[in-house]
Amino acid sequence: MSPDDLHYLESHEWVGRDGDLAVVGISDFAVNQLTDLVYVDLPPVGSTVTRGETFGEVESVKAVSDLYSPVSGEVVEVNGGLEDDIAPLSEDPFGEGWLMKVRPTEENAEGLMDAAAYREFCKTADQ
Questions:
Q1: pLDDT tens column, 37-75
Q2: Which of 31, 58, 101, 113 could be a cystine partner for 117, CB 3.0 to 4.6 Å?
Q3: What are the residues whose beta carbons fall under 8 Å from the beta carbon of 19, sequence distance 6 or more?
């Protein structure tokens, strides 16, 4: 997956496809805004997430931010390695820093931005 292949929420979460699973993470824009990440709280495997609702939080030295799910479905895997080493979230948010994998109950990108729209959104959010 590359940032151009993903869809985004205004709250800076992204979603991409890995076979029949949706992979969810946060964008490099969010990581740069938060700076110095120290902790991420992810849902347990087997739980369900609902599109547009919180599923966890990410904490930096300056703020705690809720994480919002871009899809609804069952959490089938979380990036448990981030509990011991959060560096991949900062260094590679679109790759090794993914947060969770969800078996989606919907295939709807309505309300999500494509990469071009997200880049434009970030330009206005950064001002």
A1: 999 999 999 999 999 999 999 999 988 999 999 999 999
A2: 113
A3: none
pLDDT band at 126 (very low <50, low <70, confident <90, very high): low
Expressed as residue numbers, the domain containing 52 is 3-106
Residue 126 DSSP class: T
Instruction: Give the C-alpha distances (Å, rounded to integers) separating 73 from 30, 47, 104.
Output: 23, 9, 4
Look at the chain and report how many structural domains it folds into: 1
Cα–Cα dist 100/22, whole Å: 8
Q: What is the DSSP string of 3-19?
A: GGG-EE-TTSEEEEEET
Is position 15 within any domain? yes
CATH number of the structural domain spanning residue 50: 2.40.50.100
Residue 125 lies in a domain: no
